[in-house]
Amino acid sequence: MKYVEARIVFESSDAAAAADLISEIFYDFGLQGVIVESPEAEAGIDWAENDVTIFKENAVIGYFPKNGQLPERCRMLEHRLARLKQTLTMSFQVSYHDIDEQDWAESWKQYFFTEKITDTIVINPSWRQYTAKPGEIIIEIDPGMAFGTGTHPTTRMCIALIEKYIQPEDTFLDIGTGSGILMIAAAKLGARAMTGIDNDEMAVSVARQNLIQNHIAPEIYEAKTGDLVNSVTAEYSLVTANILSEIIVTLLDDVHCVLKPDGIFICSGIIEPKQAMVEEKLQACGFEILEVRIEDEWVAIVSRLT
What's the CATH code, domain 145-305? Predict the structure, then answer.
């Protein structure tokens, strides 16, 4: 499949806020991952390898499928950026170029390093060497075009919350599974049966490959293409949805159908300005909010159906 890389180089007095707001524009298009380049690079735990790329400018990069929707998406992207410029002190320049999936998969590797998510869970790129320390749980991941590397705050928070709330022998459902990283975490933390759903066939394929790479027993999981919970007939102990706020709000009309009594629902992919909207819908749908975490202006919410 062909993709078009949309690269926004920008200058702003608050570069971190600008990067988050530009990223949110891409997420609103339904993209599952965005690359942020910054001159202020952060080290992963394998920083000593000295293969880190130091960037000269601030940039946010997203990848659009090269299809009939592309011209309208590019137009809307530039329109949203122009509106953002009116509310934030910022200048920007947009450029586009074609890229093959294989080329992208190789170029992405420079952005992805071994990272410790919790005291025990380490995310390791499949192409990097890392020796586990005693007690560590290693998740080997190759994001492909599905993204979901574990480096985004929403993914980190979801993994930490799964670790906190999952119980031995729980069943687990991941809505919008992407690379399958949350399924892998759940399996390594003791889930006995799992289902991952994504509306992108490529994401489902990547998730299956990553589950195999992490030696997850094939009889305990299913990764399939679907729209939210429309094709789900079972009930689960723990359900996650790391997707857009607006989609979470839609999902809440039906998610109770796939939760066991006293089941836990973890949702993320929420930016702070939309936190209240999601919390209000949760409460209106009969959920009790158990915990809220915020990291870099992203929000994760844990709730239980009352």
Answer: 3.40.50.150
